[in-house]
Amino acid sequence: MMSYRTFRRNIRLNVERDIADILCNDSNNMSDVVNADTASCSTVGLNVDACGVGSSTKQSEYECDNENNDGAIGADMPRFQYDFETSESDADDDDDDNGGDGTSDSIATLLSQWAVKYIGSVSLTCLLDLLAILKPHSSELPRDPRSLLKTVRTPEVESCIRHVSHGSYYHFGIEKGVTDQLRNKIDCLTCSNAISVQINIDGVPLFKSTNGQFWPMLGKISFPFVSDPFVIGIFYGENKPSNLDFLADFVSEYQKLKESGIAMDDKRFCFHVSAFICDTPARCLVKHVKGHTSYADCERCTVSGTWHDKMTFPDLDAPKRTNIAFDEMQDSERHKGPSPLSDLGVGMVSQFVIDYMHLICLGVVR
Ligand SMILES: [Zn+2]
User: Fold this and answer.
1) For 46-50, what is the mean pLDDT?
2) What is the mean pLDDT of the chain?
Protein backbone atom coordinates (compact mmCIF):
# COMPACT_ATOMS: atom_id res chain seq x y z
CA MET A 1 0.00 0.00 0.00
CA MET A 2 1.27 3.44 -0.94
CA SER A 3 2.31 5.54 2.04
CA TYR A 4 0.80 8.95 2.65
CA ARG A 5 4.12 10.61 1.98
CA THR A 6 4.69 8.77 -1.30
CA PHE A 7 1.13 9.62 -2.29
CA ARG A 8 1.79 13.30 -1.69
CA ARG A 9 5.08 13.18 -3.52
CA ASN A 10 3.45 11.59 -6.56
CA ILE A 11 0.84 14.30 -6.59
CA ARG A 12 3.47 16.96 -6.40
CA LEU A 13 5.47 15.43 -9.24
CA ASN A 14 2.31 15.21 -11.35
CA VAL A 15 1.54 18.83 -10.67
CA GLU A 16 5.08 19.91 -11.54
CA ARG A 17 4.98 17.91 -14.76
CA ASP A 18 1.65 19.35 -15.79
CA ILE A 19 2.73 22.86 -15.04
CA ALA A 20 5.96 22.40 -16.91
CA ASP A 21 4.05 21.12 -19.93
CA ILE A 22 1.71 24.04 -19.87
CA LEU A 23 4.53 26.52 -19.42
CA CYS A 24 6.31 25.07 -22.39
CA ASN A 25 3.22 25.33 -24.56
CA ASP A 26 2.12 28.73 -23.45
CA SER A 27 4.69 30.44 -21.30
CA ASN A 28 2.89 33.76 -21.32
CA ASN A 29 -0.34 32.54 -19.86
CA MET A 30 0.34 32.27 -16.15
CA SER A 31 -3.29 32.01 -15.26
CA ASP A 32 -3.40 28.68 -17.02
CA VAL A 33 -0.63 27.50 -14.80
CA VAL A 34 -2.60 28.10 -11.69
CA ASN A 35 -5.72 26.63 -13.22
CA ALA A 36 -3.83 23.58 -14.36
CA ASP A 37 -2.23 23.20 -11.01
CA THR A 38 -5.52 23.35 -9.23
CA ALA A 39 -7.10 21.10 -11.82
CA SER A 40 -4.45 18.45 -11.46
CA CYS A 41 -5.05 18.36 -7.78
CA SER A 42 -8.73 18.08 -8.39
CA THR A 43 -8.33 15.25 -10.85
CA VAL A 44 -6.80 13.02 -8.24
CA GLY A 45 -9.68 13.69 -5.95
CA LEU A 46 -7.81 15.60 -3.30
CA ASN A 47 -8.98 18.30 -1.06
CA VAL A 48 -6.33 20.81 -2.04
CA ASP A 49 -6.09 22.58 1.29
CA ALA A 50 -6.17 19.44 3.29
CA CYS A 51 -3.31 17.83 1.43
CA GLY A 52 -1.14 20.90 1.85
CA VAL A 53 -0.25 21.12 -1.82
CA GLY A 54 -2.79 23.80 -2.49
CA SER A 55 -1.44 26.05 0.19
CA SER A 56 2.03 25.50 -1.13
CA THR A 57 0.95 26.50 -4.61
CA LYS A 58 -0.11 29.87 -3.35
CA GLN A 59 3.46 30.56 -2.34
CA SER A 60 5.13 28.94 -5.29
CA GLU A 61 7.29 30.84 -7.64
CA TYR A 62 7.00 30.33 -11.32
CA GLU A 63 9.80 31.48 -13.42
CA CYS A 64 9.86 31.13 -17.13
CA ASP A 65 12.59 32.29 -19.36
CA ASN A 66 10.51 33.84 -22.08
CA GLU A 67 13.43 34.77 -24.29
CA ASN A 68 14.68 31.23 -24.61
CA ASN A 69 11.37 29.53 -24.66
CA ASP A 70 10.56 28.19 -28.03
CA GLY A 71 8.24 25.48 -26.90
CA ALA A 72 10.77 22.68 -27.18
CA ILE A 73 11.21 20.25 -24.36
CA GLY A 74 14.70 19.37 -23.22
CA ALA A 75 17.68 21.65 -23.28
CA ASP A 76 15.53 24.65 -24.00
CA MET A 77 12.92 23.76 -21.49
CA PRO A 78 11.85 26.85 -19.58
CA ARG A 79 13.51 27.21 -16.21
CA PHE A 80 10.93 26.23 -13.71
CA GLN A 81 11.06 26.52 -9.98
CA TYR A 82 8.40 24.98 -7.89
CA ASP A 83 9.38 26.09 -4.47
CA PHE A 84 7.40 24.48 -1.72
CA GLU A 85 7.99 26.99 0.99
CA THR A 86 5.64 25.70 3.58
CA SER A 87 7.34 24.10 6.51
CA GLU A 88 5.31 20.96 6.10
CA SER A 89 6.55 20.34 2.61
CA ASP A 90 10.10 21.26 3.54
CA ALA A 91 9.97 18.90 6.43
CA ASP A 92 8.99 16.09 4.12
CA ASP A 93 11.74 16.96 1.68
CA ASP A 94 14.28 17.03 4.46
CA ASP A 95 13.02 13.76 5.82
CA ASP A 96 13.27 12.13 2.44
CA ASP A 97 16.49 13.63 1.23
CA ASN A 98 18.59 14.45 4.23
CA GLY A 99 17.50 11.97 6.79
CA GLY A 100 15.54 14.62 8.62
CA ASP A 101 18.21 17.06 9.71
CA GLY A 102 16.25 20.12 8.74
CA THR A 103 12.90 21.39 9.85
CA SER A 104 12.02 18.30 11.88
CA ASP A 105 14.95 19.00 14.17
CA SER A 106 13.72 22.51 14.51
CA ILE A 107 10.32 21.22 15.46
CA ALA A 108 11.90 18.93 18.03
CA THR A 109 13.97 21.79 19.38
CA LEU A 110 11.03 24.15 19.55
CA LEU A 111 8.88 21.51 21.17
CA SER A 112 11.52 20.69 23.78
CA GLN A 113 11.97 24.39 24.55
CA TRP A 114 8.22 24.72 24.92
CA ALA A 115 8.09 21.71 27.24
CA VAL A 116 10.93 23.08 29.37
CA LYS A 117 9.24 26.49 29.55
CA TYR A 118 6.06 24.92 30.92
CA ILE A 119 7.80 22.13 32.82
CA GLY A 120 5.65 22.62 35.88
CA SER A 121 2.40 22.47 33.89
CA VAL A 122 3.19 19.93 31.20
CA SER A 123 3.80 16.48 32.62
CA LEU A 124 5.84 13.79 30.90
CA THR A 125 2.61 11.84 30.38
CA CYS A 126 1.06 14.84 28.65
CA LEU A 127 4.17 15.23 26.48
CA LEU A 128 4.08 11.52 25.69
CA ASP A 129 0.53 11.85 24.36
CA LEU A 130 1.42 14.95 22.37
CA LEU A 131 4.37 13.18 20.76
CA ALA A 132 2.12 10.25 19.87
CA ILE A 133 -0.11 12.68 17.95
CA LEU A 134 2.75 14.50 16.23
CA LYS A 135 4.98 11.53 15.53
CA PRO A 136 3.11 10.37 12.38
CA HIS A 137 3.68 13.83 10.89
CA SER A 138 7.35 14.09 11.68
CA SER A 139 9.42 10.97 11.76
CA GLU A 140 12.27 12.76 13.47
CA LEU A 141 10.30 13.46 16.62
CA PRO A 142 11.04 10.88 19.30
CA ARG A 143 8.33 8.79 20.89
CA ASP A 144 9.74 9.24 24.38
CA PRO A 145 9.55 12.69 25.99
CA ARG A 146 12.82 11.98 27.80
CA SER A 147 14.51 11.77 24.41
CA LEU A 148 12.92 15.05 23.38
CA LEU A 149 14.12 16.76 26.54
CA LYS A 150 17.56 15.15 26.12
CA THR A 151 17.45 13.80 29.64
CA VAL A 152 21.01 12.89 30.43
CA ARG A 153 21.40 9.23 31.30
CA THR A 154 25.03 8.60 30.67
CA PRO A 155 27.09 6.09 32.61
CA GLU A 156 29.45 8.93 33.59
CA VAL A 157 26.70 10.82 35.37
CA GLU A 158 25.17 7.74 36.91
CA SER A 159 28.52 6.67 38.28
CA CYS A 160 28.78 10.03 40.02
CA ILE A 161 25.45 9.57 41.82
CA ARG A 162 26.34 8.31 45.26
CA HIS A 163 24.03 5.91 47.04
CA VAL A 164 23.48 7.11 50.57
CA SER A 165 21.12 6.03 53.34
CA HIS A 166 17.58 5.88 51.95
CA GLY A 167 18.40 7.90 48.88
CA SER A 168 20.98 9.08 46.42
CA TYR A 169 23.12 12.16 46.17
CA TYR A 170 24.76 14.05 43.32
CA HIS A 171 27.46 16.56 44.10
CA PHE A 172 27.76 19.40 41.60
CA GLY A 173 30.56 20.97 43.61
CA ILE A 174 31.18 24.10 45.63
CA GLU A 175 34.14 25.17 43.52
CA LYS A 176 32.27 24.78 40.25
CA GLY A 177 29.35 26.85 41.50
CA VAL A 178 31.62 29.57 42.86
CA THR A 179 33.83 29.80 39.78
CA ASP A 180 30.77 29.98 37.55
CA GLN A 181 29.62 32.98 39.55
CA LEU A 182 33.11 34.54 39.66
CA ARG A 183 33.60 34.36 35.92
CA ASN A 184 31.98 37.72 35.14
CA LYS A 185 33.50 39.45 38.16
CA ILE A 186 37.03 38.12 38.08
CA ASP A 187 38.55 41.30 36.64
CA CYS A 188 37.22 43.36 39.56
CA LEU A 189 38.61 41.06 42.24
CA THR A 190 42.02 40.93 43.87
CA CYS A 191 43.55 38.03 45.72
CA SER A 192 42.95 39.85 48.99
CA ASN A 193 39.24 39.25 48.52
CA ALA A 194 38.10 36.25 50.53
CA ILE A 195 35.05 34.56 49.05
CA SER A 196 32.22 34.16 51.55
CA VAL A 197 29.41 31.81 50.72
CA GLN A 198 26.06 31.25 52.39
CA ILE A 199 24.61 27.75 52.36
CA ASN A 200 20.98 26.71 52.31
CA ILE A 201 19.63 23.19 52.71
CA ASP A 202 15.94 22.45 52.52
CA GLY A 203 13.47 19.81 51.38
CA VAL A 204 11.48 20.13 48.18
CA PRO A 205 8.51 17.81 47.57
CA LEU A 206 8.47 16.64 43.96
CA PHE A 207 5.24 14.74 43.40
CA LYS A 208 1.72 14.60 44.78
CA SER A 209 1.49 10.86 44.32
CA THR A 210 4.68 9.79 46.09
CA ASN A 211 6.93 11.05 48.87
CA GLY A 212 9.91 11.46 46.52
CA GLN A 213 11.70 14.62 47.46
CA PHE A 214 14.82 16.62 46.73
CA TRP A 215 17.02 18.08 49.40
CA PRO A 216 19.08 20.56 47.42
CA MET A 217 22.11 22.19 48.93
CA LEU A 218 22.40 25.70 47.53
CA GLY A 219 25.16 28.26 47.77
CA LYS A 220 25.29 31.99 47.25
CA ILE A 221 28.31 34.26 47.35
CA SER A 222 27.67 36.98 49.92
CA PHE A 223 31.04 38.72 49.73
CA PRO A 224 32.76 40.50 47.94
CA PHE A 225 29.61 40.63 45.84
CA VAL A 226 26.20 39.03 46.02
CA SER A 227 25.79 36.31 43.42
CA ASP A 228 22.88 34.30 42.14
CA PRO A 229 22.19 31.09 44.02
CA PHE A 230 23.83 27.96 42.64
CA VAL A 231 23.36 24.27 43.29
CA ILE A 232 26.09 22.50 45.23
CA GLY A 233 24.45 19.10 45.55
CA ILE A 234 21.09 17.36 45.56
CA PHE A 235 19.86 14.52 47.74
CA TYR A 236 16.90 12.48 46.48
CA GLY A 237 14.93 10.06 48.60
CA GLU A 238 11.47 8.90 49.59
CA ASN A 239 11.87 10.69 52.91
CA LYS A 240 14.11 13.33 54.38
CA PRO A 241 17.71 12.18 54.82
CA SER A 242 17.83 9.70 57.68
CA ASN A 243 21.40 10.61 58.56
CA LEU A 244 24.11 12.99 57.47
CA ASP A 245 26.14 10.80 55.14
CA PHE A 246 24.84 12.80 52.20
CA LEU A 247 26.98 15.69 53.50
CA ALA A 248 30.23 13.77 53.00
CA ASP A 249 31.06 15.28 49.58
CA PHE A 250 30.30 18.77 50.80
CA VAL A 251 32.41 18.29 53.93
CA SER A 252 35.44 16.94 52.08
CA GLU A 253 35.32 19.65 49.41
CA TYR A 254 34.84 22.41 51.97
CA GLN A 255 37.83 21.08 53.91
CA LYS A 256 39.93 21.17 50.75
CA LEU A 257 38.80 24.67 49.75
CA LYS A 258 39.42 26.00 53.24
CA GLU A 259 43.03 24.87 53.00
CA SER A 260 43.85 25.66 49.39
CA GLY A 261 41.33 28.34 48.43
CA ILE A 262 39.78 28.72 45.00
CA ALA A 263 42.03 29.36 42.02
CA MET A 264 40.87 31.16 38.91
CA ASP A 265 42.80 33.03 36.19
CA ASP A 266 46.10 33.10 38.08
CA LYS A 267 44.34 34.36 41.18
CA ARG A 268 43.73 32.44 44.34
CA PHE A 269 41.03 33.40 46.79
CA CYS A 270 40.51 32.36 50.39
CA PHE A 271 37.20 30.64 50.85
CA HIS A 272 34.89 30.19 53.77
CA VAL A 273 31.23 29.61 54.52
CA SER A 274 29.79 32.57 56.36
CA ALA A 275 26.41 31.17 57.35
CA PHE A 276 23.99 28.30 57.05
CA ILE A 277 20.51 29.62 56.37
CA CYS A 278 17.85 26.93 56.78
CA ASP A 279 14.45 26.48 58.29
CA THR A 280 14.19 24.89 61.73
CA PRO A 281 13.75 21.23 60.65
CA ALA A 282 16.72 21.51 58.27
CA ARG A 283 18.85 23.20 60.93
CA CYS A 284 18.04 20.39 63.37
CA LEU A 285 18.91 17.85 60.67
CA VAL A 286 22.35 19.17 59.75
CA LYS A 287 23.23 20.10 63.34
CA HIS A 288 22.14 16.59 64.35
CA VAL A 289 20.10 17.78 67.30
CA LYS A 290 16.61 16.90 68.48
CA GLY A 291 13.60 18.37 66.73
CA HIS A 292 12.13 21.76 67.33
CA THR A 293 9.45 20.45 69.71
CA SER A 294 11.92 19.07 72.25
CA TYR A 295 12.53 20.47 75.74
CA ALA A 296 15.99 21.74 74.77
CA ASP A 297 14.81 23.45 71.62
CA CYS A 298 16.21 26.93 71.99
CA GLU A 299 19.21 27.33 69.73
CA ARG A 300 20.62 30.32 71.53
CA CYS A 301 20.27 29.48 75.22
CA THR A 302 20.08 26.44 77.45
CA VAL A 303 16.55 27.06 78.70
CA SER A 304 14.59 23.90 79.42
CA GLY A 305 11.03 23.91 78.16
CA THR A 306 7.91 23.55 80.30
CA TRP A 307 4.83 21.82 78.94
CA HIS A 308 1.57 23.79 79.24
CA ASP A 309 -0.54 22.17 76.54
CA LYS A 310 2.31 23.27 74.36
CA MET A 311 6.01 23.75 74.80
CA THR A 312 6.85 27.01 76.53
CA PHE A 313 10.17 28.59 77.47
CA PRO A 314 9.49 30.88 80.43
CA ASP A 315 13.11 31.38 81.57
CA LEU A 316 14.47 34.41 79.76
CA ASP A 317 17.86 34.49 81.51
CA ALA A 318 19.22 31.02 80.86
CA PRO A 319 22.94 30.75 79.97
CA LYS A 320 23.71 31.20 76.30
CA ARG A 321 24.84 28.37 74.09
CA THR A 322 28.36 28.59 72.66
CA ASN A 323 30.07 27.00 69.69
CA ILE A 324 32.52 25.24 71.97
CA ALA A 325 29.78 23.82 74.19
CA PHE A 326 28.01 22.60 71.07
CA ASP A 327 31.14 20.93 69.66
CA GLU A 328 31.64 19.21 72.99
CA MET A 329 27.98 18.18 73.04
CA GLN A 330 27.64 19.39 76.60
CA ASP A 331 23.82 19.42 76.50
CA SER A 332 23.06 15.71 76.31
CA GLU A 333 19.33 16.48 76.15
CA ARG A 334 19.81 18.24 72.85
CA HIS A 335 22.31 16.29 70.78
CA LYS A 336 21.53 13.16 68.83
CA GLY A 337 25.15 12.76 67.77
CA PRO A 338 28.09 14.61 66.33
CA SER A 339 27.58 16.67 63.17
CA PRO A 340 30.22 16.41 60.45
CA LEU A 341 30.08 20.19 60.16
CA SER A 342 31.61 20.55 63.63
CA ASP A 343 34.86 19.13 62.29
CA LEU A 344 35.02 21.91 59.69
CA GLY A 345 35.30 24.63 62.30
CA VAL A 346 31.81 25.88 61.50
CA GLY A 347 30.28 27.86 64.36
CA MET A 348 27.44 25.47 65.09
CA VAL A 349 25.61 28.14 67.05
CA SER A 350 26.81 31.45 65.68
CA GLN A 351 26.88 30.50 61.98
CA PHE A 352 23.42 28.96 61.94
CA VAL A 353 21.53 32.19 61.65
CA ILE A 354 17.94 32.53 62.75
CA ASP A 355 16.81 34.76 59.98
CA TYR A 356 14.02 37.24 59.49
CA MET A 357 12.38 35.31 56.68
CA HIS A 358 11.98 32.08 58.66
CA LEU A 359 11.29 33.70 62.05
CA ILE A 360 8.89 36.44 61.05
CA CYS A 361 7.64 36.05 57.47
CA LEU A 362 7.30 32.26 57.54
CA GLY A 363 7.02 31.97 61.33
CA VAL A 364 5.14 34.42 63.53
CA VAL A 365 3.02 36.12 60.89
CA ARG A 366 2.14 33.14 58.76
ZN1 LIG B 1 16.68 30.83 74.40
Assistant:
1) 36
2) 76
Cα of 304 vs centre of ligand 1, distance in Å, is 9
| pLDDT 10s digits, 218-233 | 999 999 999 999 999 9
For residue 21, how many other CB atoms are within 10 A of its CB?
Answer: 12
The ranges assigned to domains in the chain are 4-85, 99-148, 155-274, 278-366
Residue 338 main-chain phi, psi, to 5 deg: -70, 145
Cα-to-centroid distance, 323 and ligand 1 (Å): 15
How far does residue 309's CA lie from ligand 1's centre (Å)? 19
| Distance (Å) from CA 198 to ligand 1 centroid | 24
Ion ligand 1: protein residues whose beta carbon lies under 5 Å:
298, 300-301, 303
- Alpha-carbon torsion 332, 334, 336, 340, what sign? negative
Whether 149 has a pLDDT exceeding 70, the answer reads yes
Ligand 1 geometric centre to CA of 215 (Å): 28
DSSP 8-state class, residue 68: T
pTM: 0.60
